[in-house]
Amino acid sequence: MLDAQRIEYLVTGSLASSVYGEPRATHDIDLVVAMNAAAIAPLLEAFPPPEFYLSEAAMHEALATNGMFNLLATAEGDQVNFWMRTDTPFNRSRFARRRREEVLGLSLQLPSPEDVILAKLEWSSRAGGSSRQYVDALRVYEVYGVTLDREYLERWARELSVADLWHRMQAEAEPL
User: Fold this and answer.
1) CB 71 within 8 A of CB 52
2) Which of 54, 59, 69, 113 is a Cys-bridge partner for 144, taking CB atoms 3.0 to 4.6 Å apart?
3) In 10 A of CB 173, how many CB atoms?
4) Cα(5)–Cα(72) distance, rounded to whole angstroms?
5) Could you tell me which residues come within 8 angstroms of residue 132 by beta carbon, excluding any fewer than 6 positions away?
6) Segment 61-116, tens digit of pLDDT
7) Looking at the structure, do residues 81 and 167 belong to the same domain, yes or no?
8) Which has the closest alpha carbon to 162: 125, 112, 120, 116?
9) Nearest Cα to 113, choosing from 75, 72, 151, 148?
10) Bridge partner list, 69
11) Model-wide pTM > 0.85
12) Domain of 101: which CATH number?
């Protein structure tokens, strides 16, 4: 749907870290999207009630505030969180580095493993040291360690103020 509407997106959160690291169950999908008001009507048409709940007002508010809105599958209780892409250097970088990957028969736009690690460390830092976010980052590091772009990781860890978590993760990781 997003591809058909030419909405740029990036799968983030636990789905992205599960693809590259340790799979874990989740009932939500987190997307960072670069969309405008013209995308609202097609999204509402694609996800009609009563099968789905999608608030037009929440979509407009998310666009106005660079916030987020949710799409809920009413029967299953699953949800998609749409986070508006902010114009930060890190978001520009991770969008430029995203890649299309096949996941369970779906073609998805995913961040690089480095960007998953950095985003998870940033969320861990924001969430007061969330161990779940940190462990997600650690598992991606343990899978991809020797192939990761260390220079990129070092640079962004400093810029995102997560260098302490990045260095801790390297020290704690299982041998590669």
Assistant:
1) yes
2) 113
3) 13
4) 19
5) none
6) 999 999 999 999 999 889 999 999 999 999 999 999 999 999 888 899 999 999 99
7) no
8) 125
9) 148
10) 82
11) yes
12) 3.30.460
Give phi and psi for 72, each to the nearest 5.
-115, 135
Q: What angle do CA 73, 47, 107 make, to 5 degrees?
A: 85
Please tell me whether residues 90 and 36 are part of one structural domain.
yes
Q: In angstroms, rounded to a whole number, what is the distance separating the alpha carbons of residues 112 and 86? A: 18
> Two tokens at 161?
């103020």
CA dihedral 102, 107, 112, 118 (to 10 degrees): -110
The range of the structural domain enclosing residue 104 comes to 1-111
Which DSSP helix (H) or strand (E) runs through 93?
Answer: helix 89-96
Residue 129 tokens read as 């040291």
| Dist. CA 58–CA 159, nearest whole Å | 31
pLDDT tens-digit profile of 97-106?
999 999 888 8
- Two structure tokens written together for 40: 């609202």
